[in-house]
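Supplementary Note 3. Input sequence used for the single-chain structure prediction.
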Amino acid sequence: MSPLFEEIRTGLADRYEVLREIGRGGMAVVFLATDPRHGRNVAIKVLDPAVAAAVGYDRFNREIRLAARLTHPHILSVIDSGEIVGPPVRPWYAMPFIEGDSVRTRIDREGQLPLADAIGIAAEVADALDYAHRQGIVHRDIKPENILLQEGHALVVDFGIARMVEGSDGQRLTATGMTTGTPRYMSPEQATGESTLDHRTDIYSLGCVLYEMLAGRPPYDGPSAMAIVSRALAGGPPSITVGRPAAEALQPVLDRALAQLPADRYGTAAEMAADLDAASAGTHVAAAVPTKEPRRRWRWLAAPLIIAGALTALVWLRPGPGPSSSAHATIAVLPFRPVGDDVDAIAAGITIATRDRLAVVDGIDVVGDVTSAAKGLSNAPAPMIAERLGADYVIRAVVERDTAADRIEVRPELFGANGTQIRFWDGGPIAVSAANLARVESTIARRVVDALDLTIGEAARAHLTPPRANPAAYEAYLRALREPGEERRRARLQEAIVLDSTFAPALALLAEGAILRYSASGASAADSAEGYRLATAAVRNAPGYARSQMEMGLFHRSVTHDLDSALIYFHRARALAPGDADIVHFLASVLWSAGQIDSALVEARRGTALDRLNASAVSRLSHILLWQHRLDEAWSRDVEARPLAIQQGVAWAMMVGPMIQVARGSLDSARALTSNIESPRLRSATVGFALDWDLQGWLIDDSLALRICRDPGATEAGLPRLDSPRLPQNRLVACALEEWSRGDSARAMAMADSAHALLRSLVDGQPQAERLRMRLAYADFLLGDREGALAQADSSIAIRNTYWDFHPGAINAIAYARLAGMAGDAERATTQLRPMLEGYSPITRDWLRVDPAFDRIRSDPLFRELMRGGPRSQSGRTGP
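The predicted structure, written as C-alpha cells, is reproduced below.
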C-alpha cells in the first residue's frame, strides 16, 4: 500500500471507502471509492498539491461549484468536493463511477469505429459542449480519454478543471497563466499559449477526436509534442478519405471544425451537431469556409516557432521535483562563483556552457544570460530569485581551483522555487583536470535531467554531451566566453581553432563576431566572407550543435537578407535547443523581419518570459506590439523596458517609447522621453541612433538634435556596436535633414554635398543596398534635385523588403513616405502610407497628424482622403 493511497484513504475515511487507484495523470490521481451513504461507487480525483497551489484553493472551489451546476445527459457531473487536510493540502472532487469504456479504450481496441457510432458520439459531445459553452464554461481538454461511454452514449468528464471564460463577476477565474491540454487535440491558439481561448478551441478538439474515431489515428501525430504541433500548423487537416473512404461525407465537417483560424470554425457546437446529424441522415453538408493564405509563401516555416507556446501549454509547471515523465521546467543557472586564482574566466565559461547544455533538453527552458546574471540576485534566497526570474528551479555552483592537485572542483546546488534543495548530486565536488573540463557541464545537465525525471530520447541525450574538442581548445573557448573585449575574445577563440580546427562552438562564435562586424561596419566584404566560411565550418563539423545552425541563420538574416533561408536555419537551431533564450530572441527578430508579425509576437513573449530583465528582449516585444497597433500594451511593456535599457545602456530600446507616443499623436511627449534621459552618454547614444539609423531626428527636441549634430564627438561615447553603424554618410545625411527642417539651408546643403559623394560611391559598389539608396535619395533632395531624389527613392523601395522591419512597416518605407511628403508628392506618399495604416507598421493617423514631413501635402485631396479614417483605435488591433 503506497503512502499516497494510505493518506487518501485516511483523509476521506469519514465520507468514502477508498478501494484502489485507477488512474494517474500530470495533474491528478484518480481513486475508486464506495459512497456508503448512497450505496454507489464514485471516482475521486485528487489534485497534485503543486497544481492546487498554483490554481489557488479559493479559485478551485469556485470553479468546482460552477462545474457542479452543469446538468446535462451527456456530462458526467461533479457530485462532491473537498480538501484533505495536510500538509500538503490536497483538493479533490468526486464523480459517479462509470463501468464502461472510454472512447480511447474503444479506439485502442477496435481501431476505426463504425460510422454511425463515431457520428453519434461526436454529436452527443457537441450537444454537451454547446450546453456548457452557453453556461460560460470551456472544457479545454476534449480528448478520447475524457469521453466515457455508458450503454453506448457519451459522457464528457473533467469539466472541473476547465478554465471559465467569464465568471459571474465578469472576471477570469483562472488567471494563473497555466494551460492544460493534450498536444494531439489542442487548437492552434491553445498550442501557442493564447490567454483568451473561447468555445471554438473545444470545437477544434472535438474535430480531432472525430477524425481519430473515423481514421483510427489522430489527424496530427509525431514522435514529440513539438513535432505534433508543428505538423498541425503546417496546413489544413488531412483528408479522411485516405484512410476511410466511406467517411467522405464528413470531410466538410472536419474541414470546418479543424480550421486553423477560430473565425473559420463552427460558430457554436450546436452547428457542428446539426451538420453531424445531417451527415448521418445522408444530407449534404456545406463546405467549410476557406482559410485565408498568410502574407508569405513560407507558411510552414512558422510552425516550429509554436514550440514556445506548446511547451508551456503541454503540462503544468511544478515548483519541485516530481515523478511525472511529462515534467516541464524553467531553470535559472546563476553565474557560478569562482574561488581562487585564475578561475574567474573558467567559472564564467562553465556557467554559459551549462546553460547551453540544459537548453537542448525538450522540457527545459533556460533563463537567459542577461536575466540570470542580474546584479543583486546571486546571494539572494532561492525563492526570491525564482520569483524575480520566473524560474521553477535555480542552479548555483562554486568553482574552485585545487592547485595542489591541479584540478578544477565544481560544487553545484539545485533548488526548487519554494527554496527546497533538491538532492541531485551524490555529495562531494565534480573534480576534473583541465583535460576534462567539458565533463562538468554535461555531468550537471545529466544529473538535472535525472533529478527532474525528464524522459528524453537517445538523440537528445547525446546532445547533452558537448562537441568533442582538444582539452586546451576547450579551455581557451571557456575563457573566451567572458573576455571583456571583442578583440581579446576573438584572440582566445582563434587560439582554440588553432588547437582544434573542427571545434564547432569556437567556430560558431567567431562566425557571429564576423557577421556582427559586417552589420556594424558598413557591409565589409572581408567580414562577410569570414562569417560565411566560419558558419559553414561550424555546421559541417557539428550539424547537431544548435549554435552552428543559428549562426548560419544569422548570416542569411544579416548578410544575404535571405529571410526564408534564415528561418530554416533558426528553426533547426530551435529544434536542437528548444530552451535556449538566445535562439528565441533571434527567431523572434527574424520572424518580424520576414513579416510574420503574429508569429514573432509569440516568440517575443516567450523570449521575454525567459529573459525578463533583458532590455532588448522586453523592448523587442514592445516594438512588435507597436507594429500591431496595440499601443496600450506596447506602452506598458516600454515602461518595463526603459529602466532596464538605462541600466544596460541599450540606446535603440530608448527610441521605442517615442515612437509609441507619436503613434498616439503626442510629439511633445515623444521628445520629452529622450530629453529627460539623465545619463549624458545614453542620451547622446539614443539621439545618435535616431539620427543615424532611422532618420527619425524629428522625434528629438530641436536643440538637443542640433547640439549633437554640431558636436559629432559627443555621440561617439556610448553608441553600442549594434545600435548604429557610426558611418559618416549616415550622420551627415541625418544632420543635414535636421538643419534643413530647422531652416538652415546653407548648412544642410554643405553636409548633404559631403554625404552625396560618399553615398554615390557606396551605392555603385553595392547596388542592392536599399537603405544606402534611400540615404542617397535624401542627399539628392537636400541638394535641390527633387526628381532625382524621388527616382532614387523609387529604386530603393523596388529592390526588396528591407532588412530589420518588413515592408510596409519598414523603416525604409517610412523614410520613403516622409521624403515624398517633404517633396510635395501626395500620390507617392499616400500610396506608401495606406498599406501601413491598414497592416503592420508603427504608422497611425495620429502619427501623420503630428509628423511635419507631411505638412506640404496636408491639403491635398489624396492625403485628406487618407486621413478621414479618424484616429487609430487603442483597443488592440492585431493587423490584417
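Residues 162-180, 287-327, 714-726, 870-880 have pLDDT under 50 and may be disordered. The radius of gyration is 30 Å.
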